[in-house]
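Worked example 3 (structure in, sequence out).
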């Protein structure tokens, strides 16, 4: 709408062509782009308008100076100035390149991904900018947004589980030309382990007792498919336990038949309420959408380092990009065993038996030790010290206790690292160079503090520490656990062993993809579980599975090494030297990376790049996932071109590149079969 100064009605108008571009010269889509025009030195807007097209023609009173502010996704992006005389003018305003963010959503244990959570991205003003559901790994699509340039700029997230608002997050920041992944831990458990208690009341508000009939409750899904059933107990209560978080429909049964005088009632089971009373012909009021769950604040953890977008230098010559195929890859072709949670006077028989399997056979073993819980058991400590001296064992610093470091500030973390290193020196006469973060959680500040304190290696979990894992020329090598020989079952509160035949293929896959593999083991999984707890008795069946896993590794001539030795064992492994490289089902000619990079850098146009890709798809050289074919005529989103450039630089995977190509097919920019 116009907000004109009164005298402007008598003034002559002149045209101004406004065009908004990114700093690399690409034109910005008009969608979600607004601008404000100020005349002369006034602080009152002369014109506020949503951009209908880019470029856009404005007609403004001549002989004035104008300031134009650009807003994208509701955030300030850049300003431009023009002196409009009696001739048409053109004003180009260059705004910063967008940044990317992918969200990884986990339950409150920090390790279990939330599948099919709905993540809604909102502007600072509450406008919805995007919506996506998480996959089985808890990951959303990658959002591309304008950066938050001003201190008080931010984006917001609403995360829904079963259509209930599980948490809201403010202050999401996006940085110019960077792409990051951010971990979000919602304050909701995967499984509500607390006892859930239901009571039934009749129309007189009297509690139904067992003597009143054979009553039971069914917890069903939205389509009334029964999931869990429990019967009325003597005290007039019905109990459930270990129920997955979510929204359930409650059905009341008597003698196995539905009692329709109790309405089907949706309830949210998320751990914040454990007692439920149901009244005949009343029940609870139906749940409205959305309902916020009043739990503790969510935790957000940045995972990957940012990927910087290289900007085009207008005077440069085309760069020759490395093709997809390489003449060799780097690999250690080695596997490390990490024995976690070794401690004083605890499951000694199981701990000693595991250590014996490695020491007697002279197999390298890395011990993860939180020093405050392993410094007084002289018998066990003497064994470890002896094996360290022989070169069989190495000690990894797992902190003072098992408390997550990221909950402390940098000063406190530095203090913990120094104190723990001093204790390791005193107890074991060694200063560990390998660090295992408590709970596997760390961030970039943690990594820098480790380097400052003389650590050279880090071993977390591949849940938190994502590839790539460079094998050379690193100040701090990162070799995370990729597999375990047992998993913790929260419903039984115990570790359940994983067969060697299941673990071994996972290790082989990591060797192929990463050049190394780390498998973790724990004392609990090698002790007998009885009467609700681990006994100090050896589980010989699990010991046999450990032996079998070691035999499988050695039968393939794969070396077993300490984690801190992985980078020392690296060598060049020749690979195919033909003209294509393969990732999954996708094959790429060696020239394609040049085309992708040159397209991003501005040395070839859209049509040239699209024709090349279309040829490869139609010739079945490049395969893309099944997708609907668009009708054509759409503009190419900037993020697709950025993806192509990042792929040429080797900063994103083949799958990420294919995602962009698939999107162009969906838009109809690329047509299949023509």
């Amino acid at each position: 709408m116009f907000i004109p100064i009164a005298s402007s009605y008598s003034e002559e108008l002149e045209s101004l062509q406004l065009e908004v571009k990114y700093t690399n010269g690409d034109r910005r889509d008009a969608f979600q782009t607004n601008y404000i025009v100020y005349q002369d030195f006034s602080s009152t807007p002369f014109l506020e308008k949503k951009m209908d097209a880019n470029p856009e023609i404005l007609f403004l009173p001549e002989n004035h100076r104008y300031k134009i502010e650009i807003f994208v996704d509701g955030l300030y992006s850049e300003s431009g100035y023009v002196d409009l005389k009696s001739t048409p003018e053109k004003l180009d305003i260059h705004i910063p390149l967008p940044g990317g963010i992918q969200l990884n959503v986990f339950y409150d244990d920090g390790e279990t991904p939330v599948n099919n959570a709905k993540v809604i991205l909102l502007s600072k003003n509450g406008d919805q900018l995007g919506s996506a559901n998480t996959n089985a790994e808890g990951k959303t699509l990658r959002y591309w947004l304008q950066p938050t340039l001003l201190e008080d700029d931010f984006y917001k997230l609403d995360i829904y589980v079963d259509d209930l608002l599980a948490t809201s997050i403010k202050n999401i920041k996006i940085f110019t030309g960077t792409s990051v992944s951010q971990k979000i831990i919602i304050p909701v458990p995967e499984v509500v382990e607390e006892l859930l208690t239901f009571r039934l009341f009749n129309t007189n508000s009297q509690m139904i007792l067992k003597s009143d009939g054979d009553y039971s409750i069914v917890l069903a899904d939205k389509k009334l498919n029964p999931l869990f059933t429990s019967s009325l107990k003597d005290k007039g209560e019905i109990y459930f336990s270990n129920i997955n978080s979510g929204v359930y429909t409650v059905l009341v049964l008597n003698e196995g038949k539905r009692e329709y005088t109790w309405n089907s009632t949706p309830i949210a089971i998320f751990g914040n309420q454990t007692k439920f009373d149901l009244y005949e012909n009343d029940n609870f009021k139906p749940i409205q959408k959305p309902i916020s769950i009043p739990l503790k604040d969510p935790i957000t953890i940045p995972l990957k380092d940012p990927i910087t977008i290289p900007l085009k230098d207008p005077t440069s010559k085309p760069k020759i990009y490395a093709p997809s195929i390489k003449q060799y890859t780097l690999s250690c072709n080695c596997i490390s065993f990490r024995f976690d949670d070794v401690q004083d006077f605890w499951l000694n028989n199981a701990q000693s038996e595991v250590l014996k399997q490695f020491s007697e056979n002279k197999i390298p073993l890395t011990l993860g030790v939180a020093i405050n819980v392993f410094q007084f058991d002289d018998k066990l400590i003497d064994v470890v010290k002896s094996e360290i001296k022989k070169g069989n064992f190495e000690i990894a610093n797992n902190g003072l206790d098992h408390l997550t470091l990221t909950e402390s500030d940098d000063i406190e973390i530095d203090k913990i690292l120094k104190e723990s290193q001093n204790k390791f020196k005193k107890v074991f006469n060694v200063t560990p160079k390998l660090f295992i973060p408590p709970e596997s959680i760390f961030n970039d500040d943690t990594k820098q503090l480790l380097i400052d304190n003389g650590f050279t290696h880090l071993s977390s979990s591949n849940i938190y520490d994502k590839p790539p894992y460079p094998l050379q020329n690193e100040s701090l090598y990162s070799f995370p656990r990729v597999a375990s020989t047992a998993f913790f079952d929260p419903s039984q509160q115990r570790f359940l062993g994983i067969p060697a035949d299941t673990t071994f293929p996972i290790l082989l896959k990591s060797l192929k993809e990463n050049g190394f593999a780390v498998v973790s083991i724990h004392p609990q999984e090698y002790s007998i579980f009885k009467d609700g707890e681990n006994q100090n008795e050896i589980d010989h069946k699990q010991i046999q599975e450990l032996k079998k896993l070691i035999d499988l590794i050695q039968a393939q001539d794969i070396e077993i090494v300490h984690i801190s030795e992985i980078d020392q064992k690296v060598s060049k492994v020749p690979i195919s030297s033909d003209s294509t490289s393969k990732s999954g089902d996708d094959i790429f000619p060696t020239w394609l990376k040049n085309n992708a990079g040159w397209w991003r850098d501005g040395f070839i146009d859209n049509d040239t790049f699209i024709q090349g890709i279309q040829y490869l798809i139609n010739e079945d050289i490049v395969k893309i996932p099944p997708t609907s074919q668009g009708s054509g005529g759409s503009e190419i989103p900037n993020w697709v071109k950025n993806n192509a450039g990042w792929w040429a630089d080797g900063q994103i995977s083949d799958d990420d590149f294919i995602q962009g190509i698939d999107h162009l097919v969906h838009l109809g920019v690329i047509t299949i079969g023509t």
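Notes: The first strand starts at residue 13 and ends at 22. The chain has a mean pLDDT of 83.
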